[in-house]
Amino acid sequence: MSKHHGSEYDSLLVINKDEIIPYITKAIQEQDEKITSLEREKQNLRATVEELLKRIEKLESREELE
What residue spans define the domains of the chain? Predict the structure, then answer.
């Protein structure tokens, strides 16, 4: 970003699109990687919860038999 020189534009910032696009692209790629990682983690947590629920169910059914 650079400041545009001129009396009426003293507070105006100018963005060079060619310079900022690689940064935006990199940020999007990083966000995509983070989303993929979080989706994988969510799937693993769901599988863990399902397994724990099955184990709880087994324990509760044992208690009912006693």
Answer: 2-65
